[in-house]
């Protein structure tokens, strides 16, 4: 867990001060909770003994009632029972070498029906670009209430893509 937290901090350095431990604590709690979920999968990538990347995935519960599509009737059809990519983190020095692609490929193995989705932070332009480059198909859903829309990327052969107009592809 300490390695995951350290790598995540390296990969997401930005406006959050290094002494602010709140994001690390929230990440630890979320990851510990997800690890207890049936079907949880964590994948690591190492260069020698150093962690250079990791990813996590879980099966979306059936019925599905969470973000990003709460209140949207498509959530059950598109996301319930599908594999959700939770984390995909690569050390800055290991980027551009196929590490994220290999981690993503491994995380999606349990989805023999190609029902895979990810909802990256809309401010993470590198993640948005990566998923587009990987052939993930982006669609945008309105959030309940007055909140901003949420980008959701579906696997290239996700069954829901038949006849769906795509955004940002």
Provide key terms for this protein.
169 residues, alpha+beta, 6-stranded mixed β-sheet, 6 strands, 22% strand, globular
Which helices and strands, and how do they pair?
Layout: H1 2-11, H2 22-35, E1 41-47, E2 50-59, H3 74-78, E3 83-90, H4 99-107, E4 116-118, H5 125-133, E5 137-141, E6 150-154
Apparent shape: globular
Provide the low-confidence segments as ranges. none
What is the number of strand segments?
Answer: 6
The average pLDDT value, as a whole number, equals: 83
For the terminal residues, how far apart are their CA atoms? 35 Å
What is the CA-based Rg, rounded? 16 Å
Instruction: Please outline the major beta sheet.
Output: 6 strands, mixed
Q: Return the string of H and E elements.
A: HHEEHEHEHEE
How would you describe the overall organization of this protein?
The protein is α+β, with helices and mostly antiparallel strands. It has helices at 2-11, 22-35, 74-78, 99-107, 125-133, and strands at residues 41-47, 50-59, 83-90, 116-118, 137-141, 150-154. Strands 1-2-3-4-6-5 form a 6-stranded mixed β-sheet. It is globular.
Compact overview of the structure:
The chain has 5 helices and 6 strands; from the N terminus they run ααββαβαβαββ. By secondary structure, it is α+β, with helices and mostly antiparallel strands. A hairpin with a 2-residue loop joins β1 and β2.
């Amino acid at each position: 867990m300490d390695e995951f937290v350290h790598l995540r901090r390296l990969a997401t350095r930005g406006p959050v001060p290094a002494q602010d431990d709140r994001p690390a604590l929230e990440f630890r709690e979320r990851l510990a909770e997800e690890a207890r979920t049936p079907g949880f999968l964590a994948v690591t990538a190492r260069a020698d003994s150093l962690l250079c990347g990791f990813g996590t995935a879980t099966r979306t519960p059936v019925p599905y009632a969470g973000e990003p599509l709460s209140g949207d009737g498509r959530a059950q059809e598109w996301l319930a029972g599908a594999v959700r990519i939770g984390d995909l983190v690569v050390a800055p020095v290991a980027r551009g070498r196929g590490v994220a692609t290999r981690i993503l490929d491994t995380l999606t193995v349990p989805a023999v029906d190609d029902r895979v989705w990810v909802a990256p932070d809309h401010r993470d332009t590198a993640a948005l670009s990566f998923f587009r480059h990987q052939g993930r198909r982006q669609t945008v859903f309105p959030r309940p209430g007055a909140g901003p829309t949420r980008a959701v990327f579906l696997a290239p052969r996700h069954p829901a893509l038949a006849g769906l107009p795509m955004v940002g592809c």
